[in-house]
Sequence to fold (470 residues):
Amino acid sequence: MTSVTGRVRLTGAAGTNLRRPAPRRWWADLAGSAALLSVVAVVALWLHNGGLRGFAAPGGPATSIGRLTGLVASDLLLLQVLLMARIPWVERSYGQDALARRHRLVGFLSFWLMIGHIGLITVGYAQSGGGGVLAVAGDLVVTYPGMVLAAAGTVLLILVVVLSVRLARRRQRYETWHLVHLYAYLGVGLALPHQLWTGADFIASAPGRIYWWGLYGAALGAVLVFRVGLPVFRSAYHRLRVDAVVPEAPGVVSVYLSGHHLDRLPARAGQFFLWRFLDGPGWTRAHPYTLSSAPSGDLLRITVKDLGDGSSRAATLRPGTRVLVEGPYGALTADRHIAGRKVLMVAAGVGITTMRALLDDLAESGTPITLLYRIRRLGDAVFRAELDDAARRTGVRVVYLEGARCRPDSWLPAMFAQVSDLAGLRWLVPDVAGHEVFLCGPPDWMAGVRATLREAGVDTDHIHAEEFAW
Fold:
């Protein structure tokens, strides 16, 4: 234990803090604007290729609107791929959870547009040719180039969408969801190419061909570079291996990882990686774990709570086990702190891992910091010795909020049963409205804390939280 932790920088101790350049604030605006402009470009190309002129023919309105919904759905499907392609500057500007929410929203919108496209095109062709809708649908699939592939891709996308509904996600393990979700790439790859063979906006329009081939190329390139190439390169170059596994609390262990030139790994305290431990069957499934201390240059640390099959294996890892890594991801870093403002950290359960890492970056600046750590029992506190040491060395105020919830809808323990959550927060942090707040814990618990913070006068822009969303 001594030899391992001596190589990880503790708050207030000597060591190397690897500062990384902060993301430019305009990156998020640029990415969002580009996404909106892509939809505008699709509509403009549809108009340029006679989208409105088709209304005059029999079945024209349904066919023309069907073309438009299909084009916009295709554009949004490709934007979905780009959203989750792990493009570093986009990832760091938005954060993984914000990108996941946008990905989900765009996904459902593109899905319904795709369904509208199928229905409208079928009805339009039936109206123009006089056949029945079902007969026309069958004829389209069988006789038009690429339509069999498109039908197969549509079935896969429907499957992914159904399994992405909140109720379905709650019944799945992350590993199952992740495996099924990979079929979305296959679905997109099968559903879209029929437009290259039969779509008027691809065949008859040079600007359309340039736009669509460019967007296809950008989406495919981003996946190959950032989801495949970069992780393979970093895993090969840094040659990460398990250095030690150290118990931290009941059901919680820290895994220390060593490697080659870790000082060149662009990681920040508060970020997470997707880890694959080559320890036997199941190694292909990646697991998202946050760094629990700032990168020290020669060692990384993650801290894992036993919450399932993947996390339970962490305690059995042996020194020397090779590790494949994707990342870093996430935007909950010290860059969110506005100079001159006090810092309030609020954590529950294993959410303390993120706060523990952020202390390495924030405490050294001399910023007044208060940490509220919600736990069931004091014996469950992870990093208690490190947090107490940080309090002695740097003056960080650490408050352990111990015990069961005072009320079912409260985020505070039993000692606050006689007061509201707002009164409890103001008693703990009287000037809370003037703080920059970092928040990490279970989603429902964080929602309660957020509501109390806003009630206490903390502006939403000063509440920083990120959860692993899927």
